[in-house]
Amino acid sequence: MSIPLDLWGQRGWPSVEVAGESHYARSIRGLFGKDFKATGTEITVTAQLIPEPHNKHDRHAVGVWVGGVQVGHLPREEAVRYAPVLSALTAQGWLPQVSARVWGAEWFDDDGRTGSFQGSIRLDLAEPHMLVPANLPPSGDCRMLPTGNSIQVTGEEKYLDVLAPFLRPEGECWAHVSLHEVIEQLARSTRTIVEVRLDGACVGQLSPKMSSELLPAIRHLGQHGTTAAARAIVKGNRIKTEVVLYVARAHELPESWLSEAASSQPAAAPPVPVTDPVGQSAPVVPAPRAHAPIPPPPSGIKFVVPPGWPSPPEGWIPPSGWQPDPSWPVAPDGWQWWVPVWR
């Protein structure tokens, strides 16, 4: 059983063309149902990307599936770039998925009676190094603000040492950040701004104007004991690094999101695999967090302890709201996690 995982980096427009649609014309036609118009119909769907390491034509092949049926493949030259990260995700129990645009039309011969269906699919797929974040979600109860337009963080030059581990050969990476309301002391007054933290360490602030765009949402979550989190891109090098948030402003938040935030405290997004600063395959793993003993674990959950690490307190289970974590099934040194015992 795989857990659906929305890949990061989607920008709202599909740009990667799917190959081999002609071989799956019947499956693509079936996606439109009764709403299909022969002159041309376009729909937006969710597409799953499933590596095919045993494909006899290309061991890097990546199949594209929609609604339980295959509709094509990534082009060969693209598949060789995406297969490593997608294979790592599927091996760890995730089902990578992105938004896709599907177009179809019926073409008729000169007699006007013999027609053939033609379809095309484009994926909203970021570059391979931008598919997953470079760190885990913030600790404790947190809620991700919806993705929105970019907001520039200021003052990053003071925190180059904190940002250095997030520098990548490609020049940028996604990261989870947390947002906090702080009072800044000025020469003769104070002002309230938003502080941006990466793995608990400050990496900059928002300007007063930009802070005012997010503070209502941060306070709304704070009233329910939840920390606001957001997506950010860290880009640059060891002498100049920038942090840019991609987050919805308070006035852009839908009522459904506000109501859900007030009625529940969802668990943070599941962790995903990341690479080290020099692009090697070993995961960057934060230190494990301590938890107090709580009642015996439910059936179907197993605790895995890496060699040399102490076992958890007897009867310890994850805090309320945690989900079984299928990532990193091969224990890297210095990490503890929960995995489901599939029956």
Q: What does the model show?
A:
The protein has 343 residues and is of the alpha+beta class. The protein folds into three domains: 3-129, Alpha-Beta Plaits (2-Layer Sandwich), CATH 3.30.70; 142-263; 287-343, no CATH class. It is 15% helix and 32% strand. It has helices at residues 25-30, 76-91, 160-163, 208-222, 255-263, and strands at residues 3-6, 16-17, 41-51, 62-66, 69-73, 94-108, 115-123, 142-144, 150-152, 172-185, 190-198, 201-205, 227-236, 241-246, 301-304, 337-340. The strands form three sheets. Strands 1, 2, 3, 4, 5, 6 and 7 form a seven-stranded mixed β-sheet that branches. Strands 8, 9, 10, 11, 12, 13 and 14 form a seven-stranded mixed β-sheet that branches. Strand 4 (62-66) and strand 5 form a beta hairpin.
What's the topology here?
Layout: E1 3-6, E2 16-17, H1 25-30, E3 41-51, E4 62-66, E5 69-73, H2 76-91, E6 94-108, E7 115-123, E8 142-144, E9 150-152, H3 160-163, E10 172-185, E11 190-198, E12 201-205, H4 208-222, E13 227-236, E14 241-246, H5 255-263, E15 301-304, E16 337-340
Parallel strand pairs: 1-6, 8-13
Antiparallel strand pairs: 2-7, 3-4, 3-6, 4-5, 6-7, 9-14, 10-11, 10-13, 11-12, 13-14, 15-16
Keywords:
alpha+beta; single chain; disordered C terminus; 5 helices; seven-stranded mixed sheet; 16 strands; 343 residues; Alpha-Beta Plaits; 3 domains
